[in-house]
Design goal:
With 162 residues, this protein is of the alpha/beta class. The protein has one domain: Tetracycline Repressor, domain 2, CATH 1.10.357.40. Strands 1-4-5 form a three-stranded parallel beta sheet, covered by helices on one side. A two-stranded antiparallel sheet has the order 2-3.
C-alpha cells in the first residue's frame, strides 16, 4: 500500500510541478489550479498562475478568499479534472501505471480526513477522496491497456445485472 505521498511517492502529491489548464488559465501544479478554482477574483487567478508563488503559499492564502457559491458542489469535479490532466502526462502516467493494484492513500498529519487519511489517530481515519480519484484514473489506464474503454465496461456491467 502507498500510505503517504512522500519519498519515492512524492510525485503523487498535488504540489508536484505539472502544467494544468483550467478554463483559459495555465497553472504550475494541481494545487495551484485547484485553489484558483475556489474564487472568481481575477487577481486571485493571476496569483495562482504565478509559479513564483509556491503551492503551499497558494494553499495558505486560499483560506481567505471568497469561495464561489457552488464550491461545495463542484470541488470534487474540479479536483478530478486537474488530476486527470496530471496523470495523462508523462512521467506521471507511467509511474501511476507502475503502481499496479496498490492501494493509494493520501496519508497526512494535518487532520485532512476529506481528501486523505489522518495518520495521527489509530486507527487511521479518513475518506481518502484524493487517493480514490487517483486509483480511478489508474483503472482507466488499465481498461485502455486491456482493450476496454469506459463504454465497454458499462455495457458489461449492464449485461451482468440481467
Amino acid at each position: 500500500m502507498i500510505s503517504e505521498f512522500v519519498g519515492q511517492y512524492k510525485w503523487l502529491s498535488n504540489h508536484a510541478p505539472v502544467i494544468i489548464k483550467l478554463g483559459e488559465h495555465i497553472y504550475p501544479s494541481v494545487e495551484h489550479a485547484f485553489m484558483s478554482a475556489k474564487c472568481d477574483d481575477p487577481e486571485w487567478k493571476t496569483y495562482c498562475m504565478d509559479a513564483n508563488n509556491t503551492s503551499g503559499d497558494v494553499k495558505k492564502k486560499s483560506r481567505y478568499v471568497k469561495l464561489i457559491d457552488n464550491w461545495g458542489k463542484v470541488k470534487m469535479d474540479v479536483m478530478f479534472i486537474c488530476l486527470e490532466q496530471k496523470f495523462y502526462q508523462e512521467p506521471f502516467k507511467s509511474k501511476l501505471t507502475a503502481t499496479g493494484l496498490e492501494n493509494i492513500q493520501e496519508g497526512n498529519f494535518h487532520d485532512d480526513v476529506f481528501w486523505g487519511v489522518d495518520l495521527k489517530v489509530n486507527p487511521n481515519v479518513g475518506e481518502n477522496h484524493l487517493g480514490r480519484m487517483i486509483m480511478t484514473i489508474r483503472n482507466k489506464f488499465t481498461y485502455v491497456t486491456n482493450g476496454f474503454y469506459e463504454g465497454d465496461n458499462l455495457e458489461i456491467s449492464k449485461r451482468d445485472k440481467n
